[in-house]
Amino acid sequence: MNECSVPNASKRAQIIEAAVAEFQEKGFAASSMDRISARAEVSKRTLYKYFESKENLFRSIVIELSSRFAEVLEIRYEKGRCVREQLTELAWAEGRILMLPDVIAMSRMVISETLRNPVLAAEAQGKLDKTATFIDMLRDASEDGQLQIGNPEQAGREFIGLIKARAFWPMLFTGQVLSRSEMAETIENSVEMMISRYDAKTEKAGV
Length: 207
Hints:
There is one protein chain. By secondary structure, this protein is mainly α. The protein folds into two domains: 50 residues, Arc Repressor Mutant, subunit A; 143 residues, Tetracycline Repressor, domain 2 (Orthogonal Bundle), CATH 1.10.357.10. It is 75% helix and 0% strand.
């Protein structure tokens, strides 16, 4: 094994991929840094150069997973622009990430471990929760008069929940991801349900 031939970014990715597999297979408590280094095909010295402990490695995986959703967090409502288009773009920002197999693998590992450890669960939740972006989008759309929403917080959870009900939670059991056509159908249906429920014209018409 020639570690010098592996770029630093790739080496770090190797370690994270190996750690995800190790944590998922053994659980955090029973996992071994020795086995992680063997899985990653790097020396223990290299492993500890990047990650000083199992705890640090686990938190780095949570941060890596969180960074994948950066596009979602950056989306903001544009006043006056078609709300259906904006909701669709936000849903696709989420959906594109949920079609990545490594994201599902990391999510499975993180969720399985946080079920055993409330402290890790709270820390991971704070980094991975993107509901605020959905809430902000719907609140701003309501204030702009394109939607009529009395409780944006609830509506935001409903919207992201519609997407995850098909594109995320079932995938945690199978390890699979939706195809692009399946994701497109999921997003179209989710947006349509939100528009039908909260459309300002419908509300004003008393329907």
